[in-house]
Amino acid sequence: MLFLHRRSDTASAKAWWAAVKESPHAAPALLRELARSTSVVAGSVEIQQAVGWARAHPTWRDDDPPFVAHDGVVAPPGTL
Questions:
Q1: Which single residue of 3, 18, 53, 63 has CA 20 to 30 Å from 28?
Q2: Element (H or E) spanning 57, and its range?
Q3: What's the first-to-final CA gap in the chain, in angstroms?
Q4: In degrees to the nearest 10, what's the CA dihedral of 17, 33, 7, 25?
Q5: Domain boundaries defined on the chain
Q6: What single DSSP character describes residue 54?
Q7: Is 71 within 8 Å of 2 (Cβ atoms)?
Q8: pLDDT tens string 35-60
Q9: Which residues pair with 5 in a beta bridge?
Q10: What is the 3-state secondary structure (H, E, C) of 1-44?
């Protein structure tokens, strides 16, 4: 299991989440859940599917992703 943490510390991350919240029905369930909280626990396949959908979104930026995944209990800097 991995942790997925929502980032909202940059303008582009905030813009991505705002765009997703405008049409939440299109987003995978994992990202809809993450939009309502700061982190979720998921399996690697579920995260890979969510990342695939997220990267296809027009406001996605590889250099400033709106969420990060990691395998520890402590959130990465800048994610909360």
A1: 63
A2: none
A3: 20
A4: -20
A5: 7-70
A6: H
A7: yes
A8: 999 999 999 899 999 999 999 999 89
A9: 39, 68
A10: CEEEEECCCCHHHHHHHHHHHHCHHHCCHHHHHHHCCCEEEECH
